[in-house]
Amino acid sequence: MQSAIHRQCSERWHFFKQSKEGGTVILWGHGGIDTLVLAQVSNSHMPAIDENREYATKIILLLLYMAKQGIALRGHDEREESKNRGNFLELCNVFSQFDEAFAKKLRGYFNFTGHSTQNELLHIAADIVKSRIIQKVQENGFFTVLVTEARSFKQEEMTVCVRYTENLEIKERFLGFVDSSERGDAGAIYQSIKQFLQASGIANLPVVAQCYDGAAVMASHINSVQQKMLQDHPTAIYIHSMTHKLNLVLVQACKVNQTATGFFDTLESLFAFFSQPATHPAYLEAQKTLGIKLEMCSLSDTRWACRWKTVSAIKNSMRALLSCLLELSEPPYRRFNEACGLLYNVQKMDFCVCLIVFYHVLSVIHIAQKALQTQDATLSQACSVLQRTVKELESMRISTKWDAVWEEAQKFHELLHEVPTPGADEGCAHKRCVKKTAFLECSAIMSTLEQQECQPDKNESAGEKWGRRLYFPVLNTLLGECDSRFSSQSLEIAKSVEAVLKCDPDGIDGLLSKYANALSINSELAHTEMKWIKMDLPAITLEGLKAAASTKLYPNFTKLLKLALTLPVGTATCERSFSAMRRIQNWMRSTMGQKRLSDLCLLHVESDLTEGINPHQIIDAYAAKSGGHPRRLLFTDI
After folding, report:
1. What is the model's pTM?
2. Which long-range contacts (CB under 8 A, 24 or more apart) does 510-518 make?
3. How far is residue 631's CA from residue 638's CA, in Å, rounded to a whole number?
4. Secondary structure of 408-466 in the HEC alphabet?
5. What is the pLDDT of residues 48-107, one digit of tens each?
6. 67-83 b/e with 16+ CB inside 10 Å = b?
7. What is the span of the domain harbouring residue 345?
8. I need a surface site. Which of 99, 211, 242, 549 has the fewest CB within 10 A?
9. Does residue 87 lie in a domain region?
10. Is the pLDDT of residue 21 over 70?
11. β-pairing, 25-29 with 32-37?
């Protein structure tokens, strides 16, 4: 039996449903129904809602445009009387000149441009981009985690990226930054990574590999981040970034002895000299007369291409460099003494030899580095690039190759006779004989003893001396470092990856033993499927394998192919995210909060996904996050 209150509630519910269907709003008094307002109140709100959503759409599009371009939004003084209210408000003012409805809303008190509103809209947009990435990772079923750290003003930022496949196409995506300034030990770093993956919703997916830059806290085989990751994800093999390892090889070769070190010190001095406001225009003007425009780079052990760019720029603009130094080496230029010293060093034979030698050597390494930095490079392709690089370096390590390089260096030196220059043999003066340590007298020395300075021999020609002093030590160091740094687990896995991409069933046992259980791959069926695919395809190509895998007739091979494409090569994507971070968080924006920095970088780095955001999706999410309180601007029907 219903109580009076129950009957009253049922009656009101019945009338409420009728009002929603017919647009009638029921107003109740203490005694029941007082009046029926025959007006479609909800419909009366629709023009205002449409107007607000249209205005918000334009604001959001302007925000997303600036986020994609990495442009600063705010100004130092955003008051109406300020001459410069910041990029965002000034852009809104420009836009309002062509849209009267937009201008009217912008002049209102609740104009959707406040700092907190900007942060909330950007965070919603970043969440949408991130959720799309996470959705694709979940569809793939497993992923690789890529992590590196870099300094950002007074804090340490850790970038987290993922590698996966989407429609059998390799994708490497940036997910966000994590502030790792508080603690830098392995436990704290891994907990930050773990919490980030949990917050992203992919911590329960299998991690098939982890790729870092090789720091001890990340890569050590005892109590490091990679060991802690293996405890939670046994399939997450550690792969040292191959681009980073190749850079370490190059750094060692560039410091092989005092001759090489002195050469790069001279390059750094040239860069510092021509970076001054008084000298740089003269250098550019001298290049302009020759029809070239090249820039030197500051040398760094962490910038992979800086040495190649600087050596190439100096070699190809040497005439402009000499004419500029000659002009600046006389008074009244206040730094003419420095210009004289650089001019003397540049025209010496040892500088010319070093320039030509490192130009040839660095060109080989530069090609390999560019290939390893591509996002769609597979582990087998990376190993193939490294093998070709080693073969090329070995082919250069013969006397005939050195004779050609020496002849080129001599011709290059002959072109630099605008001022008196040292003789061809100068710079290779005889040095004192370095005695070997007594306990090494009866030993076979299998590795280098610190820097490789050759022993003087008065009977050698200048070419032979330079070959023993620079050319062959550089090549020996490159080959020795490649052999020691690239003989690891990643090369063994690469053989199995190559077998998958060549559809060779006999070579995939390495992958199956590691991943079959975790990824639910039937080993026997995988072998059979690969044999069938090999019979069906006239030629084994990656595109042909993708077409065969996309038919869903070979589920086990499809997983193997996804796995082969997901295993990483390097952390170039992480390094690119740091480049984006430094573009966005510059010295004028150093007080930016952590969440805002991560959101802006995500929208900037993944600009292709930002481009596809529907502004109405952001508006709906913004209206839904009101916390139970209505927004000042209506965006949804009451």
Report:
1. 0.83
2. 511/560, 511/563, 511/564, 512/560, 514/235, 514/237, 515/208, 515/235, 515/563, 518/142, 518/206, 518/208, 518/234, 518/235
3. 11
4. HHHHHHHCCCCCCCCCCCCCCCCCCCCCCCHHHCCCCCCCCCCCCCCCCCCCCCHHHHH
5. 788 888 999 999 999 999 999 999 998 888 888 888 889 999 999 999 999 999 999 898
6. bbebeebebeebeeeee
7. 247-430+459-485
8. 99
9. no
10. no
11. antiparallel
| Whether residue 30 sits in one domain with residue 172 | no
Question: Considering only CA atoms, which of 86, 30, 28, 95 is closest in space to residue 61?
Answer: 95
Is 204 among the domain residues? yes
The DSSP letter of residue 90 is H
Q: Do 420 and 294 fall into the same domain?
A: yes
Judge whether residue 243 has pLDDT over 60: yes
For residue 557, which of 533, 585, 591 has the smallest C-alpha distance?
533
CA nearest neighbour of 310 among 295, 320, 324: 295
Q: Are strands 169-179 and 32-37 parallel, antiparallel or unpaired?
A: unpaired
Question: Rounded to an integer, what is the distance from CA 217 to the centroid of its chain?
Answer: 21
Q: How far apart are CA 133 and CA 608, in angstroms?
A: 12
Same domain for 225 and 282, yes or no, is no
By C-alpha distance, which of 301, 233, 240 is closest to 493? 240
Q: Does residue 50 belong to any structural domain of this protein?
A: no
The answer to whether residues 228 and 324 belong to one domain is no
Asked whether the beta carbons of 153 and 590 are under 8 A apart, the reply is yes
Does residue 478 sit in the same domain as residue 498?
no
DSSP string spanning 547-590?
A: HHHTTSS-HHHHHHHHHHHHS----HHHHHHHHHHHHHS-GGGT
pLDDT tens sequence across 475-510: 999 999 998 888 666 678 888 999 999 998 988 998
- Is the pLDDT confidence value at 25 over 70? no
Written as one letter, the residue type at 255 is K
What average pLDDT does the segment 372-399 reach?
Answer: 92
Indicate if 33 and 156 belong to the same structural domain: no
Instruction: Tell me how many domains the chain contains.
Output: 4
- In DSSP notation, 174-232 reads EEEEEE--S--SHHHHHHHHHHHHHHHT-TTS-EEEEEE---HHHH-SSSSHHHHHHHH
Is the omega angle on the peptide bond into residue 555 within 30 degrees of 0, that is, cis?
no
How is residue 276 written in tokens? 């001054």
Chain segment 6-18, per-residue pLDDT in tens: 777 777 667 666 6
Distance CA 47, CA 293 (A): 58
| pLDDT tens digits for range 184-242 | 889 999 999 999 999 999 999 999 999 998 888 888 888 899 999 999 999 999 999 89
